[in-house]
Amino acid sequence: MKNPPGLMIPTVFSHLSIGIIVVDPQFTIVDVNEAATKILGLQRDDLVGKKTNSSDWNLMFPEGGICPWESYPVNQTLMTGKPVREVTLGIPVPGKDQPAWLQISAEPVPGENGHPGMVVCSFDDITRVKNAELTIRDNEERYRLLIEQTGQILYDYDLRSGQIIWSGAIETITGASPEEFRSVNSEQWEAMIHPDDQDMASSVLYESMKSGNRYHMEYRLRKKSGEYLYVEDNGIFIRDSGEEVIRMLGTLKDVSDRRRSIEMIRDNEERFRSLIESARDVIFTLAPNGAVTSLNSIFETMTGWERQEWVGKPIINLFHPDDLPESMQLFTSALHGSSNILTEKRIRLRDGEYASCEVTIMPQIMRGQVVGVLGFIRDITHRKKMEDHLRQAQKMDSIGTLAGGIAHDFNNLLNIMVGNIHLLSQDAGLSEKGRKRLESISKAADRGTGLVRQLLTFAKKGDLLLEPINLNIIIQDLVKLLEETFPKNIAIRLELVNEIPILLADANQLHQVFLNLCVNARDAMPEGGTLTIGSQLVSKAAVDGKDATLNHDRYIEISVTDTGMGMDESTRQRIFEPFFTTKGSGKGTGLGLSVVFGILQNHRGHIAVTSSPGNGTRFSVYFPVPETLPESESGETAASEDTPGGTETILLVEDEWMIREIIASMLEEKGYTVLQAEDGQMAVETFTAQHAAIDLIVSDLEMPRLGGRDAFLQMKQIKPSQAAIVVSGFINPELRVELTKAGVKALIHKPFRPDNLLKIIRRILDSQ
Predict the structure, then answer these.
(1) pTM of the entire structure?
(2) Are residues 220 and 185 part of one domain?
(3) Based on the number of CB atoms within 10 Å of its own CB, is 696 exposed (0-12), middle (13-18) or buried (19 or more)?
(4) Residue 453 lies inside a defined structural domain of this protein
């Protein structure tokens, strides 16, 4: 990345006595200092923007004749990349009869990646020196004074006698008086040169003496104070008629300011380049024709392309074909001066994929003219994916809320069905045919109950309903569904052991686990294949290699194996991440396996995956086998012939009048006295009036006016020992803990079996 040329010359140049001109690779003067304008007798505006590859400058050689523009020092450096030093040329000065004589040097400032950079041209006005040469033969004193005014030290070294004659600005440069310096010999002079520069100086002098050419070098010279300054040493060896070197004639010039300026420019370039290279966004510049002129290194990391592959090529070729018309219009707008244009575009990567990116472009303006485009590219692919995931999660949350609402209303309808089924089943006059039909209705209600629990699980409002289950039966029921819905080119094979321990688990959630695994297996075999589901009893040692946290001696393994495409290790490592999916857009949420993982954690289970590309995939799910089977949390037990009743008084609180009537009828048939309330407020009023007679409260949780929780807490204040049962389709864990601590004896899920409710009521009343 190049600095804007207008920033190339620091303010420090305005204080220098030497003229400084900065020229870009197109031979255009981009900046000058004040000394340059004074020396040339021109205004800054006359110089900046002017081309150096023109003969209009009318530069002339000291010996006469016009100097061609190709021989100008600055143009030689631009064309060769090499410095040119101490060239004397004359230039016409406006308003003066005589030309100004300049001693000109040109130094290249390297550009990025070896490309040509700027050239710093410095020059001294030596007109007076040239004019003094005409009179020096007549007036030695005038010559001496003139030499001092040049700001240089002149030396004349007689190699035969060893004597050195010093003159000029000795004290200004070295800090020593002319008297002190006149005694300096060649050994002392060499000792004043910085140790690190002495070999270089000796080599330059040797080559000049051997070739007969002038010598030019820069080195550090120690002043009287001990500090070093940079001097420019220009000279020539004089030979006698026999070609023997007899003298050295030369000048020493303090170029510390120039060196500092050049170093400052280089430091600024380096700092700016480091800033650009450390940026996290791609930074690029374009020529007016849209071709890339520079790119920072993050471009390679982001896209996979090498920078040099795109330098000189149209940036527009990086964009997605569908984005080209608008992109071209935006770049055109930037070239016409529109600034800070922000747009979102797709950028082509080396592997053929596209990344979503924010692109900011603005014009590059120099001297009021647009000379190109500066742009920034930020990869927002990850952010876009997160936004998509968030939208998907919000959509699923909305669907979940809807599903939860449907499940709540459906629960009440199911409770009415189940209650009426129970009441009808108590009818002694019911025929055998009617009883069978009633059993069919009861089974349908049970299936509806399972469906509601799945809806609540999807809505994340379902509690774990642990009950004794046989995993083989879960698998066999699932396979019936799969055989009806899976493509016919997928063969389903069962490898189940005959005897398998009973687990205490949530059947609906495990059904979801196995269904998700089978659906993934189906999607991995688009051309067909074999899906194998197996079960076996394994030891703790068999699971050791699966990185499980093992606390049991035996485990039930359920395996789901496909003959599909398989997956590589990097994919396998990420499959349980939320929203990660290998399926195309709209074909997967990326939530299936993360939900599976969560359900297994709730069951203290573990899942392991074995897969490789082209060799299918095997998911193994492990469930710990308990030493003894705990009591089911659903409270369901085998129905007895006769559910016991009682004579106690029960306060029944339920806003659904049909459910309330069914439960009341059932309780009254068993001998209980039932006080009914249609909401929490009525329940509190009834309890306040008759709390001494009330033995148990059976209350719904969600009701209008006053909910079951608040109503129970108010009744507890009246009678702290009051026992209660809370009935609800969903009770969140925090509320469950709160109600239990407050004295609620049982929490029953809707829909419930009436005979189970009667047993729980009887158990609580008997325990008081």
Answers:
(1) 0.41
(2) yes
(3) buried
(4) no
